[in-house]
Amino acid sequence: MTRLSAVGPEAADTLAAVHWQAFTPGWSAAELTELLDSPGVFALLAQAEEPCGMILCRAVAGEAEILTLAVAPPARRQDLARDLDAAAAGLARQAKAAEMFLEVATDNIAALRLYEQAGFQRAGLRRGYYDRGDGVRTDAVVMRLDLNTAGPAAYPKAD
Ligand SMILES: CC(C)(COP(=O)(O)OP(=O)(O)OC[C@H]1O[C@@H](n2cnc3c(N)ncnc32)[C@H](O)[C@@H]1OP(=O)(O)O)[C@@H](O)C(=O)NCCC(=O)NCCS
């Protein structure tokens, strides 16, 4: 069984280890600690036998943002990202956020499908947003979820 828990800066090493399984380079524990010490930032950690997923969000002044989302390769295609996303949206609503935003690379088909299925809609395009190295840049789609119209049943509470 996979358990989702709200965690703070004390879990930065674990969050970083999961993040590095999904991104190269991943975010360091120091970067994650700094973010988690910032106003409105919260994280959820997914744990089965091992830590296997994480999401980091910010909810400030009525607006929430997914800062990053990562699922370790062995745990993929088991609805974990869907559950992390839904739980984070629930926490954002509890923090009085009315809408949730994120940026995703236009070539990240898995994440685009995930967010579209979760009810996010395309709200804009940031040209050349991601630096892939060697001068290659990729556009980002800005996506938005209306947390007021999305039903509460879709957003189970995290621990
Ligand atoms: C994107 C990512 C978070 C998805 O995690 P996951 O736990 O495997 O996703 P889920 O099992 O919850 O999938 C939910 C939906 O997302 C879509 N999806 C997920 N992975 C997909 C893939 N490889 N190809 C196509 N669609 C995919 C599907 O629509 C899926 O629903 P379905 O299984 O009913 O078809 C994971 O692949 C990952 O960590 N990737 C690297 C980091 C990243 O891109 N993070 C997001 C940045 S914005």
UniProtKB/TrEMBL annotation:
Residues 2-148 form the N-acetyltransferase domain. GO terms for molecular function: acyltransferase activity. Keywords: Acyltransferase, Transferase. The keyword Cytoplasm does not apply. Its EC number is 2.3.1.-. Gene3D superfamilies: 3.40.630.30. It comes from the Bacteria. PANTHER family: ACETYLTRANSFERASE. This is GNAT family N-acetyltransferase. It comes from Phenylobacterium conjunctum. The lineage of its organism: Bacteria, Pseudomonadati, Pseudomonadota, Alphaproteobacteria, Caulobacterales.
